[in-house]
């Protein structure tokens, strides 16, 4: 995955700077061409000599030192690299990136490069949670900069909290997923549904489910990265819209039904990752329902099955369904695949540890109508998304760009 990839590791001045040595060392062992740019303050925590030895390349710190090559170095490097990972990324570099400040070698390269940028923030919890840092991160994310971590745990200042830099292994996994992404869905239009629908009972209550939306959002992100024009029809989910994805917000199953059916004829693929409520309250109370000390019986009426309807209407579209089960996984999933006329069904047992609602990971099987089945081990939802998009590219007959 990394062989021949030209990666710039940016190191800024935080105590986690020592972990940059492991990132550089691992990348090099995986045959990446590693370059390192450090801020002045990073050199207080770890020496350029260490990183020079591990990367086997000169380390850039100063804008105005004697050049190592004949060319304008920050521009040449900016154009040469395939990706940048800033680890650790301090609150200061995040703020500089947000406003486009270029006052040293690293920040100048960051402004000059068009390569994808990953940041692994590392700072004290109060600094991380400060509205200024959070606003900067939101803006950077919207600009397409990819965040890795931070994680929660022991901090150098002696407290527990969020702001620890992700471990080198996690950083490498994210980079490796990025480099293994499916390409070649350019010109395809896809629609993904995500989240759990909410069925209102009265002005303050609704019937909902435990879906976080993570799986669907990850799929939308990967599809967009693969070049597809991506529409995300999302029930309420507390997640940022992946960059470049068009998000259509819905609340109820009926709203989702309309939003999806309206666009069905113009898309090549629909992925129904949403957890759609099968029933809604028969009446929506205009005022808040008051308790009177006796039992309350709610009458529920069935919602339309969106996926089944798409299965009936489909012409050339590829349809992907999900089956969240708590028992008889394969038999139930098999039944759903045939009933809903899908090209691929993603089955998961939501009672398993590390799978299903709310979890950052999932354990899934892909089922195909021709009887084929692929069982995957536990993996991050982003990884499941990449495997799924790989299969979608196969189903569309465009899987040439996988590298
Ligand atoms: N689905 C849908 N519309 C519904 C219910 C489900 O489009 N009203 C879709 C889901 O998005 C998912 C698939 O159908 O892709 C299976 O959803 P799931 O909840 O597992 O199955 P159900 O069909 O609801 O069956 P059951 O509740 O009996 O398990």
Overview of the structural elements:
With 403 residues, the protein is of the alpha/beta class. It folds into two domains: 177 residues, Flavin prenyltransferase-like (Rossmann fold, 3-Layer(aba) Sandwich), CATH 3.40.50.1950; 208 residues, Rossmann fold. The chain has 13 helices and 22 strands. Bound molecules: cytidine-5'-triphosphate (CTP). The site of cytidine-5'-triphosphate (CTP) has 14 residues, from helix 11 and strand 17.
Could you name the ranges where pLDDT drops below 50 across 5 or more consecutive residues? none
Counting DSSP E segments of at least 2 residues, the number of strands comes to: 22
Q: CATH superfamily of the largest domain, called what?
A: CoaB-like
Distance between the termini: 8 Å
DSSP strand content: 15-25%
Provide a quick synopsis of the model:
This protein has 403 residues and is an alpha/beta fold. It has helices at 17-29, 48-55, 73-80, 91-99, 105-112, 125-129, 131-142, 168-179, 214-225, 253-263, 306-313, 329-339, 381-396, and strands spanning 6-11, 33-38, 59-60, 83-89, 117-121, 146-147, 151-154, 160-164, 189-194, 199-202, 205-207, 229-234, 246-249, 269-272, 279-281, 300-302, 318-325, 344-349, 361-362, 365-367, 373-375, 379-380. The protein is built from 13 helices and 22 strands.
């Amino acid at each position: 995955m990394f062989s021949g990839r030209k990666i710039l590791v940016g190191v800024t001045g935080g105590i986690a700077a020592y972990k940059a040595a492991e990132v550089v060392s691992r990348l090099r062992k995986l045959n990446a061409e590693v370059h390192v740019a450090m801020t002045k303050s990073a050199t207080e925590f770890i020496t350029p000599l260490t990183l020079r030895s591990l990367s086997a390349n000169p380390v850039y710190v100063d804008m105005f030192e004697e050049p190592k090559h004949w060319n304008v170095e920050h521009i040449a490097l900016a154009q040469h690299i395939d990706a940048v990972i800033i680890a650790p990324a301090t609150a200061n570099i995040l703020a500089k990136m947000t406003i486009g400040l270029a006052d040293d070698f690293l920040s100048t390269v960051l402004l000059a490069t068009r390569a994808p940028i990953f940041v692994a923030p590392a700072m004290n919890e109060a600094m991380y949670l400060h509205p200024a840092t959070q606003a900067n991160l939101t803006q950077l994310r919207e600009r397409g900069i990819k965040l890795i971590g931070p994680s929660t745990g022991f901090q150098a200042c002696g407290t527990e909290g969020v702001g620890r830099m992700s471990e080198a292994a996690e950083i490498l996994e994210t980079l490796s997923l990025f480099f293994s992404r499916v390409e070649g869905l350019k010109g395809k239009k896809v629609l993904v549904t995500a989240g759990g629908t909410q069925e209102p009972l009265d002005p303050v209550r609704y019937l909902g489910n435990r879906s976080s939306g993570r799986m669907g959002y990850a799929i939308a992100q990967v599809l967009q990265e693969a070049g597809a024009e991506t529409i995300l029809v999302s029930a309420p989910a507390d997640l940022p819209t992946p960059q470049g994805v068009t998000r259509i917000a819905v609340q109820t199953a009926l709203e989702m039904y309309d939003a999806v059916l309206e666009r069905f004829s113009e898309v090549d693929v629909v992925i129904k990752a949403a957890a759609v409520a099968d029933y809604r309250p028969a009446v929506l109370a205009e005022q808040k329902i008051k308790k009177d000390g006796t039992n309350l019986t709610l009458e529920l009426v069935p919602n339309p099955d969106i996926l089944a309807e798409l299965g009936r209407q489909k012409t050339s579209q590829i349809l992907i369904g999900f089956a969240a089960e708590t028992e008889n996984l394969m038999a139930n999933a098999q039944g759903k695949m045939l009933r809903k006329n899908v090209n691929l069904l993603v089955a998961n047992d939501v009672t398993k540890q590390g799978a299903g609602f709310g979890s950052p990971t999932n354990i899934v099987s892909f089922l195909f109508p021709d009887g084929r089945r692929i069982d995957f081990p536990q993996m991050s939802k982003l990884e499941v998304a990449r495997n799924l998009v790989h299969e979608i590219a196969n189903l569309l007959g465009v899987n040439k760009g996988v590298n």
